[in-house]
Amino acid sequence: MTDYAVGQRWLSETETELGLGIVVNIDYRLVTLFYPACEEERTYAKTNAPLSRMVFGPGDTIENQDGDSFTVESLSVQQELYLYQVRDEDGSERIIPESQLGYRVSLTAVADRLFSKQLDSSSWFNLRVAALYAQAETENSPVLGLRGPRVDLIGHQLWIAHDVGTRKAPRVLLADEVGLGKTIEAGLILHQQWLTERARRILIVVPPALVHQWFVEMVRRFNLHFSIFDHERLAALQPQESIKDMMARLIAEEAGAAPAEADNPFSTEQLILISTDFLAECDLQQLIDAQWDLLIVDEAHHLAWSPDAPSEEYQRVAKLADAAEGLLLLTATPEQLGLESHFARLQLLDPARFHDLDAFRAEQAAYREVADVAGAMIDQPVWDTALRNKLAALLPDEALDETRRDALLAALLDRSGTGRVLYRNTRKNISGFPQRQLQPVPLAVPPQYAGEETDLFPERGFSDDRWCAEDPRVTWLADFLRRERSRKVLIICAHKETAIDLHAWCGYKLGMNVAVFHEDMDLISRDRAAAYFADFEDGAQALICSEIGSEGRNFQFAHDLVLMDLPRHPDLLEQRIGRLDRIGQKQDIQIHVPYFSDHAQAVMFHWYHDGMGAFSRTNPAGSQILAATGAALEQALAAPADSARRDALVADTAATMDTLLGQLESGRDRLLELGSHDPNGSAQLIAALAAADAHTPHDFMERVFERFGVEVEEHSEHADILRPGAHMLAPFPGLPEEGVTVTTDRSTALSRDDMLFLTWEHPMVTGAIELVLGEDRGKAATALLRNPKVKAGTLLVELIYSLRCSAPRALQVERFLPTTVMRSLLDAQGRDLGGSISHDGLSKQCQKMDKGLSRKVVESQQTLLTQLLAQDQKRMQALAQDTLDQAREKMETELSREQQRLRQLQQRNADISDADIAAYNVERQALTAALAETRCHLAAVRVIVAGG
Ligand SMILES: Nc1ncnc2c1ncn2[C@@H]1O[C@H](COP(=O)(O)OP(=O)(O)OP(=O)(O)O)[C@@H](O)[C@H]1O
Predict the structure, then answer these.
(1) Chain centroid, CA 273 distance in Å
(2) Which of 275, 470, 594, 710 is the most exposed place for a label (fewest CB within 10 A)?
(3) Do 670 and 426 meet the contact criterion of CB atoms below 8 Å apart?
(4) Is there a single domain that holds both residue 594 and residue 506?
């Protein structure tokens, strides 16, 4: 029988919610406890009271009745009552008798639950252990952040996403050719940053026409719910001020009071999406003050810059970019506005590296040599002396050793190329794209345009759509649409007025089923038009777009493109064709070009077609071609009848094109190619993802659903329907009232947008893991071992630890030390059998131990268990030291590399201060201190006794 004494603190094993009770009365058979937390008294038979004595040990935290907490230093017993020795805030010693302890008790610590006999069955313990391993495995995955998105596994995208997404505060320009998946790459990067908490506040800025598309892609593919901010939303967020309050405020301000600080509306959400139009007009300072971890700017080629006249748009983005930690700029045509603007965007990304326009120009000229060196580094298994000498000149401070090939190549690309900041993949290196087929439609100049042979857009002389009546391009278009009724046709023209007229003519006059899309339409109308075009059953046959209106849009379901006119810049032509020629295009693309013969339009056509072959392949040299032949082009446009001049232009353009392509091939583009995609690396990523896909969360979730009362019904081979069950006590994360269909199979998820794609990274799964780990159930468990080879009565203790560093988030310590789970399986002598008996193997032989027996076992073995737990905790901490040492080493190497890079750049750039370099020392110190403090925590314990 247990001895009770008045003033002792006990806990009800069956009603822990009563809090910590105090013994107030004892008689021969009965003991009475008062529970101050709920002011209730309970009387129990002394022989079988379901009570546990609460005893705290050194290191435990206790509270007094005023709610102050202290750490126990030691304890002693006086007249059957414990006295706890603690230290005050001022360091003086103090004794707290147990009778003066507070009445709240939190039994979250594993050992507390064990010794207060809050014991659960193995199924809760196993679920908890599965959740711990799943969490650690997810955090440790080499493809963390890449598993969850609903995307096809495409090598160049994954490689970029992995290379950039694993950085702290990445700043890069994603410049793959049109339609190769820059939005997907950006999404993959931000998904990694979001999941690892490297970025918790993300702002996306896109042209108005793309707001909806981005919003949908982020939810559908990445489970990231952005809030679209526009003027209406801001107005709705403004607190409504009554006239009385307004008067009072104005009077106070008049009297000299400082204006009240309003809450920043941009701080109300973490993921915000805005349009470039909104950025141009909003309160920029307020937006900057909302502090962004990651800023993404799509179609960044619009940010024009020159040394004397940076555009307003550039300046606003520059201020935002300067304040944001990370920055992703996206453009398919980085040099569309010339080299200066390209340089200025690179400067936004890495001002230390790109600080001098002239130096940048000179660097560009030297790319060929660097590309040769980089190529030789890869091609030569053993580097020859000539190469070593060149390398020594380019990388004077590096140890030149073939085993460091990758690191040296990265350093070379960084210092002499644009390696770390610019990624550009081209179709040339990516297979699986369909062909482009040109369908030229030469037409005679109609009388209405007589005398305007030099005007590329003669229809603009009309104030309304009357030009359509006599324009043979329109007649041809109408015939074409009538003939090919089943085809979806995208029509692009340079100006919105042309698009509007054409739409009015074809739609209202000719009764055709066409939609229009241009920059002056509001967002909803634009999205409606795009959706109408995408509808195959009742939708529009054609969509007539202005140049800007169609940028960045996905229309790859169409295979016919009509170019009603031709843009002056080759990059714009590339953008137009890119609407259809993008990932997901399943057929060859027909490019129809109606143009007037003996007209400036014919000059443009031949310049593009015969000079550049621009209709049948991508054109990586658009800007340079324009720079080299632009003047001759203008002259030829001014004299369209001069066929000799036109032929000379075409011949000159073709020759320039050949030279430029040759140079690009061996120079800049070769360098970019090397830095933009490592096929071996991406093959490894794809293999890792395929392996990860094979280990789905299906079984784990099935157990969680069963435990938490979610109903599961089979939908089809790879899909289930989930519904909240009648016995669910609390809402299940991510499960709507009406239920939802889920799949864990990637290809099913890709073909069925309406199903959730459950991976270990999906919020429903991470939410389920948190749910299980947030429960106290399963922390302490008992089980009976049924194994004839083990002697009855044998005691085993299974302990699961987690090694996790709790440091300020800004340090991002998980870069070096992700959560690690450790396990031991002790026998009564403290020997660890964990190496030979796995958790799963053991669990298969475990059965439920009834409650009474469980309590008896723990009570009778309390001393031994206390000892085993204490010894093992020490042993595991020593083992954890290895992991901690490795983490420290990794941290040292990475920070030193970054610091070394900055030192190198400092020699060329006076803007880099010693303080910038010293900042790494501060980070190193803080990380070292955090790692030194890291302890492994007991996360679950199971006491196992072999049965007869
Ligand atoms: N990995 C992928 N899985 C599934 N779909 C993809 C993948 N990559 C790209 N796509 C699809 O291909 C199309 C082009 O991708 P995206 O819009 O990201 O290209 P982009 O390079 O941003 O284009 P642009 O240059 O026009 O802005 C989109 O419809 C996108 O959804």
Answers:
(1) 15
(2) 470
(3) no
(4) yes
Residue 832's DSSP bridge partners are: 826
Number of domains comprising the chain: 6
Query: Complex ipTM above 0.95?
Result: yes
Q: CA nearest 130: which of 849, 764, 778?
A: 778
Residue 226 is predicted with a pLDDT of: 95
Q: What was the pLDDT predicted at 1?
A: 44
* 181 labeled part of a ligand binding site: yes
CA 614 to ligand 1 center in whole angstroms: 21
Neighbour tally for 630: CB within 10 Å: 12
Residues 593 and 461 in one domain: yes
Distance CA 73, CA 59 (A): 6
Same domain, 531 and 645: yes
Q: How many CB atoms lie within 10 A of CB 198?
A: 25
373-409: b or e for each residue (b if 16 or more CB lie within 10 Å)? bbeebeeeeebeeebeebbeebbeebeeeeeeeeebb
- What is the amino acid identity at position 280? A
CA dihedral 747, 748, 750, 753 (to 10 degrees): -170
Q: Are 201 and 290 in contact (CB under 8 A)?
A: yes
526 Cα: distance to centroid of ligand 1 (angstroms): 19
* pLDDT category of residue 107 using cuts at 50, 70 and 90: low
For residue 94, give its domain range: 9-106
Determine, yes or no, domain membership for 769: no
Q: Which atom of ligand 1 is nearest to the CA of 180?
A: 21
The single-letter DSSP state of residue 17 is: G
128 in any annotated domain: no
Residue 676 Cα to ligand 1 midpoint, Å, equals: 17
Q: Ligand 1: does its nearest atom lie under 6 Å from the Cβ of 184?
A: yes
Whether residue 148 is found in the same domain as residue 213 = yes
Q: β-strands 589-596, 436-443: how paired?
A: parallel
Secondary element (H or E) of residue 685? helix 679-694
- Report the predicted TM-score, pTM, of the whole model to 2 decimal places: 0.77
Q: Output the CA 669–ligand 1 centroid distance in Å.
A: 22
Please tell me whether 176 is known to bind a ligand: yes
Query: What CATH number does residue 49 fall under?
Result: 2.30.30.140
* CATH classification of the domain holding 495: 3.40.50.300
- Contact present, 723 and 711 (Cβ < 8 Å): yes
* Statement to judge: residues 307 and 220 lie in one domain: yes
Q: Per-residue DSSP letters for 757-789?
A: E--TTSHHHHHHHHHHHHSSTTSEEEEEE--TT
Reported as a single tens digit per residue, the pLDDT across 694-729 is 999 999 999 999 999 999 999 888 899 999 998 887
* Helix (H) or strand (E) run with residue 135 in it: helix 122-140
- Do both 720 and 822 map to the same domain? no
791 is annotated as contributing to ligand binding: no
Q: Is 397 annotated as a binding residue?
A: no
Q: Is residue 882 part of a domain?
A: yes
pLDDT at residue number 261:
55
Q: For residue 31, is it within any domain?
A: yes
What residue has token string 């830095």? Answer: 675
Q: Give me the residue label for tokens 């909302």.
A: 290
| Ligand 1 atom at minimal distance to the Cα of residue 151 | 3
Question: How many whole angstroms separate alpha carbon 779 and alpha carbon 126?
Answer: 10
Structural contact between residues 745 and 718, judged by C-beta atoms closer than 8 angstroms: yes
Which 8-state DSSP code applies to residue 300? G
Q: Ligand 1 mean position to 582 CA, how many Å?
A: 7
User: What value does the CA radius of gyration of the chain take, rounded to a whole number of Å?
Assistant: 35
* Any ligand 1 atom below 6 A from CB of 332: yes
Cα dihedral 829→833→839→842 (10° resolution): -80
pLDDT of 809: 65
| Residue 178 known to bind ligand | yes
Contacts of 884 (CB under 8 A, 6+ apart): 803, 817, 931, 932, 934
Q: Which tokens in the block code for residue 756?
A: 């959730």
Q: What dihedral do alpha carbons 887, 890, 893, 897 form, nearest 10°?
A: -120
| Same-domain status, 220 and 308 | yes
pLDDT band at 326 (very low <50, low <70, confident <90, very high): very high
Q: Are residues 750 and 784 in the same domain?
A: no
